[in-house]
């Protein structure tokens, strides 16, 4: 009887999990094995042809490389900045509440609003960055129109948006660490950097793993800003995988190829998650 009650309690969550996670994944994998249909020629089973087409698609490889650079640019920078801000506002400083609010404010702004704010910064000649550069005699630059700078400009904006969100988790974790640890470390002659490297950061590793997982997911799902800033341009220099999937499905109406790209995205996220748990879990000290 006890097992029956347990399964009944799990049933609502299981239904939601199957309906909104496992069923869509299975349907996406199945769609990727069919051809693109139209009113004249219906879709038919083609096996792995979509995957062969994807392997020969130069835009796919460029988008995948862009996403890798985007992840490498945003994840370490946003986590490091979040930890620095958390350490700063965890101390007894004048105006600490105001500093916390200032650091967290970008997080509560919608991504579309953030993109419009930074569009004002990046606009050539009349944007805030070029206006400041002009005051010191530097020429203006089309930050979003240059393939060499567009991805870096988007990375800077994303780090500014995300760091405050990750700071909250680090701040909560720091407030659970007893201050007696720092006092004991000082009595032993440990410097601040030694205390941080040998004691504080290892205790923050569970939070770091959680923040890292969220940062990786965000690096593959934050595409709202591309609608406002670049739409993947110029020449796909800022195009990311999820935006390419959206563009393929809703602009080119090739839903089966979009399903193929989605399967690749799911596999990438699954491999990254597995690596995180296998590699990092050995370095985490749970209390």
From TrEMBL:
Main location per the UniProt record: membrane
Key words of the record: Cell membrane, Membrane, Transmembrane, Transmembrane helix, Transport
GO biological process: transmembrane transport
GO cellular component terms attached to this protein's record: plasma membrane
Superkingdom classification of source: Bacteria
Subcellular location(s) of the protein: Cell membrane
Residue stretches making up the ABC transmembrane type-1 domain: 64-276
Membrane topology type: Multi-pass membrane protein
Keyword Cell membrane included in the entry's annotation: yes
Transmembrane regions: 7-25, 68-89, 101-121, 150-174, 195-217, 257-280
PANTHER family referenced in this protein's UniProt entry, alphabetically: BLL4140 PROTEIN
Membership in a protein family: Belongs to the binding-protein-dependent transport system permease family.
Official protein name in the record: sn-glycerol 3-phosphate transport system permease protein
Phylogenetic placement of the source organism: Bacteria, Pseudomonadati, Pseudomonadota, Alphaproteobacteria, Rhodospirillales
